[in-house]
Specification:
The protein is 50% helix and 16% strand. The chain has 33 helices and 24 strands. The two termini are 50 Å apart. Residues 1-19, 228-235 and 276-283 have low confidence and may be disordered.
Length: 910
């Protein structure tokens, strides 16, 4: 097994044939930082402390403040918010706005050729307005969402345990500080579940295992050395990632404990030195990819249709300059320039709305995946249960209450320094505070063998203060999962006597534990071993030849609302699968209590026997997975994804980090360990399935409003082009002037600005929603020509009824089509936003109603306004409006009829 360090060169985009100057600079900087770290690795610990101007007692608070001012916050470059101007430029950098800018430039160039003879073309100003409205609104929304996201992230802070002193002689205290406030010279304490906050030179380490996948790509954790016994002349390395006495920023502690001195923070760390080459977009979701595909589909559609419109108008009308201007206006009409702004606004509004429901979104695009989620994998503790562990019983090997078991369990929980869980706290809470003083007087901590998820147990080694000299003894007290502890036991305590643990007795005590498991109690075993006081250092190998003392039985009662929350998730199309490291009997009982159809419980040992194909078959019908380790949890997630599911994973422990990364949407809670919070996309401020359900519904609402805009715009644009082609082929003059098309398109765009504030029908929110590119294309081809029917009927009306059938009366014809086209195009917002009957069965929100009503009113008034002549319009006769009302009513009826047929035929709408 080898560790391959990801250098900037290896991280560079594929296809780059030669290294540019920036890449070379990054590589040189990374080498320099690496060499500096290697020097720290080769120094004795006292020399490292002198070089960093630190002591083992930690920095004073005033020293830490001064160093924070001098070295800056402990953050790497890619986490910083883009500068104002860069963010503004990015808002205008999208294909639709670039198309409009190009078209505006062409129109400006065309006008400049005849500027001495022709007045200023208002179309140029209209196009510029459209560009500014789209870009500035997108910038404002992204700026606001960035500030909101920063405020939301502040609710979920990652802290680090450091030693600080209040004054020059004050005893050091271990305090939790935000990771950004860690400074060089700080003494950091690490335990299982912690993120390594900066580059550290280890001072002490106990059974320390560190996950370095972020730097080395190696999935398995690596051991780090206890530097008290290090031979500094041996094991030299030139790679700081491989140095066994360095822990680097970006890695995480999987087990064990350690202390280290900070030698580099922020951009000066090894991880920070690679920040320039690590900067890049996250992997795109299916939604991101889909939006991009639709965007370029519409651009390709425009590139095909505009030359056709140009050719038809040029050959039939003979005025190629007018035909070109008209074709440019058609191109603008085909460009959904508000799409980036609508997407950004939807996501930003979704994040804020979810925050009100106690769901913090770390990554905006995760909202779509949350709405698409159809399988949720979750632990049972805290989600199905109250996360209120109570020590219910302390039992001897026969199941009878025994105070000695409680005493040994308390010693184990009280003296451990690693990751203390709820069961440890429950044991401590059961003992009176006065007893703690007695325990500290009678016992002294010698060593500790920390918990890890492979052994599923932890041990403390204590010495009795009332024994000294040659007769002194050390006692190992081990507490952990019954199977793991029992496998190490050779004897048991029976009525105060130490008895050999025969196979028959082993089966008896196992049945005692299982009987309590069936009652829904979580059972741990407690065992001891007494050794001569000959060593101060103990390892996993010393956890052998144990004597079983008894069992601890914990109660974690099911939540009263868990069953209701599970039913709500099922009603919303989300299947819940319980993936827990707990005993299968306990898991089955708790799941049954909250109404889950348990079926056959599958354990992690079964998963290990299956290949990927076998696991895929297994996950289809399995609801509860028990006694699973981190690797097995991640495999379950991948198997579900391979079956075509969008998988969410809800977890809060270090053993959940791998599955959180593998899932489509990682969900954690603000009380989770650091690595779980960093791995998650979404943080719940309450570990509650009801809170999660509200977040899912908001995700679907956000997705639905975005799809709504895309489908309405695509179908409306397609219908307009179809109408333009028909009119251009048969009418001897321009069916609408370019400036009129531009004004109509601008007004329609404004009516769409309220789309993110709309609501979705409850029926839409009941199912997971995923991107469907084929459905968008089908929707466009069916609903687009529907509006063209009434455009063509308006052509006939203006031609035959109102006599606008010659070039002399083209202004009347164009005014009539302008009003009808704008009103139907705006009315389509209400017709297509729901699969129900609009206004009667489903009504849009007030902002949408107000915006569309305002645009329709402007459209009716515009031909009568003072600027009508500048736009080539004229007042319409009053007799036109009864026809207009009839056209709009017929349009609504036909659209509703086509919609009903479409839903029956394809069983889908938005």
């Amino acid at each position: 097994m080898t560790n391959t360090v990801l250098t900037p060169q290896k991280l560079a985009p594929p296809g780059r044939g030669r290294r540019d100057r920036r890449t070379a600079e990054l590589e040189a900087r990374t080498r320099a930082v690496g060499e500096r770290l290697v020097r720290f690795s080769s120094m004795p610990a006292p020399q490292v402390l002198r070089d960093t101007d630190a002591t083992t007692h930690g920095l004073r608070q005033d020293e830490a403040a001064e160093r924070l001012e001098r070295f800056g916050a402990n953050a790497v470059a890619q986490e910083r918010t883009p500068r104002f101007l860069a963010q503004l430029a990015k808002a205008f950098w999208n294909p639709f706005i670039l198309v409009l800018v190009a078209l505006d430039a062409v129109m400006l160039w065309q006008w400049l050729q005849v500027a001495d003879e022709e007045p200023f073309d208002p179309g140029i100003a209209i196009l510029a307005t459209m560009v500014l409205v789209s870009g500035l609104l997108r910038f404002w929304q992204e700026f606001r969402s960035g500030r909101s996201a920063a405020a939301l992230r502040a609710l979920v802070t990652t802290t680090t345990a450091v030693q600080r002193r209040a004054g020059r002689t004050t005893e050091p205290l271990t305090v939790e500080v935000p990771m950004e406030q860690v400074v060089p010279g700080d003494i950091v304490r690490l335990a299982a579940g912690d993120l390594v906050p900066a580059d550290l030179r280890l001072l002490t380490a106990k059974d320390l295992m560190v996950g370095q996948a972020a730097l080395s790509g190696e999935s398995l954790p690596v051991a780090k050395a206890d530097t008290r016994t290090r031979d500094y002349g041996q094991h030299a390395t030139t790679d700081p990632v491989e140095a066994d006495n360095l822990c680097l920023m970006g890695t995480s502690v999987t087990s064990g404990t350690a202390t280290g001195v900070v030698v580099a923070t922020g951009a000066d760390t090894y991880f920070g030195s690679m920040a320039g080459s690590l900067v890049g977009e996250r992997p795109q979701t299916s939604f991101d990819t889909g939006v991009k595909k639709v965007s370029f589909l519409l651009i390709r559609f425009m590139l095909v249709m505009v030359p056709v419109v140009l050719a038809i108008n040029g050959f039939t009308k003979g005025d190629w300059a007018e035909a070109f201007t008209f074709a440019v206006a058609v191109a603008v009409g085909l460009t959904p320039e508000m799409l980036p702004m609508v997407v950004t606004t939807n996501l930003a509004r979704g994040a804020v709305a979810m925050a009100r429901r106690k769901v913090v979104v770390k990554r905006l695009n995760a909202i779509q995946n949350l709405g698409a989620m159809d399988v949720l994998c979750t632990d049972k503790t805290g989600t199905l249960t109250e996360d209120r562990i109570v020590l219910d019983r302390y039992l001897d090997v026969h199941g009878q209450e025994d105070m000695e078991v409680l005493e040994y369990a308390y010693l184990n929980s009280h003296f451990q320094t690693g990751l203390r869980n709820l069961m440890d706290q429950a044991v401590i809470d059961r003992v009176l505070e006065a007893e703690e003083v007695v325990v500290d007087a009678r016992f002294t901590m010698v060593d500790e063998i920390p918990f890890d998820f492979a052994r599923r147990r932890m041990s403390v080694v204590l010495s009795r203060n009332d024994l000294a000299g040659p007769a002194a003894e050390h006692v190992i007290i081990t507490k952990g999962a019954v199977e793991e502890v029992l496998a190490l036991c050779t004897h048991m305590t029976d009525d105060g006597r130490r008895t050999e643990l025969t196979d028959e007795l082993r089966r008896t005590v196992t049945r005692t534990a299982e009987d309590h498991n069936r009652q829904g109690l979580r059972v741990l075993a407690v065992a001891t071993r007494t050794l001569p006081a000959e060593s101060e250092t103990y390892t996993v190998a010393d956890e052998a030849g144990l004597t079983l003392i008894g069992f601890l039985a914990f109660l974690d009662p099911p939540k009263q609302d868990a069953a209701e929350a599970l039913r709500a998730l099922a009603d919303n199309g989300i299947a819940v699968k319980v993936v827990t490291g707990d005993n299968e009997l306990v898991a089955a009982r708790v799941c049954a209590d909250v109404g889950i159809d348990v079926g056959e419980v599958v354990t992690g040992s079964v998963i290990d026997t299956l290949d990927e194909a076998g696991l895929r078959r297994l996950v289809r019908g399995t609801t509860v997975f028990a006694k699973t380790n981190p690797v097995q949890k991640a495999r379950i997630v991948r198997a579900l994804q391979a079956e075509g599911h969008t998988v969410g994973f809800l977890g809060d422990g270090i053993n959940d980090a791998a599955a959180l990364r593998e899932s489509d949407v990682g969900i954690s809670v603000d009380t989770a360990v650091d690595i779980a919070k960093e791995s998650a996309d979404i943080i719940l401020l309450e570990k509650d399935l009801t809170v999660l359900e509200q977040g899912v519904l908001q995700g679907r609402q956000t997705f639905g409003n975005t799809i709504k805009y895309i489908k309405m715009t695509a179908s409306s644009n397609f219908g307009n082009v179809f109408s333009v082609l028909v009119a251009s082929a048969f009418i001897p003059f321009q069916p609408m002037l370019a400036v009129q098309l531009l004004v109509q398109n601008l007004a329609y765009d404004i009516s769409q600005l309220a789309t993110p504030w709309d609501r979705m029908d409850k029926e839409y929110l009941r199912k997971p929603r995923t991107w469907d590119a084929k459905g968008i294309g089908r929707f466009m081809l069916v609903m687009g020509p529907t509006s063209s029917v009434f455009d063509i009927s308006t052509f006939l009306l203006m031609w035959h009824v109102f006599g606008a059938n010659s070039e002399a009366h083209q202004s009347l014809f164009q005014s009539g089509w302008f009003v009808e086209g704008l009103l139907t195009q705006t009315l389509v917002v209400h017709m297509l936003r729901t699969r129900k009957v609009p206004f009667l069965q489903s009504r849009a929100t007030a902002p949408v109603l107000l915006m569309t009503a305002l645009v329709m009113a402007v459209g009716v008034v515009l031909p009568f306004s003072p600027i009508a002549s500048a736009l080539g319009m004229q007042a319409l006769p009053m007799s036109y409006f009864p026809w207009l009302v009839g056209t709009l009513v017929a349009y609504c009826l036909l659209t509703q009829g086509v919609k009903t047929w479409y839903i029956r035929r394809f069983n889908s709408w938005l």
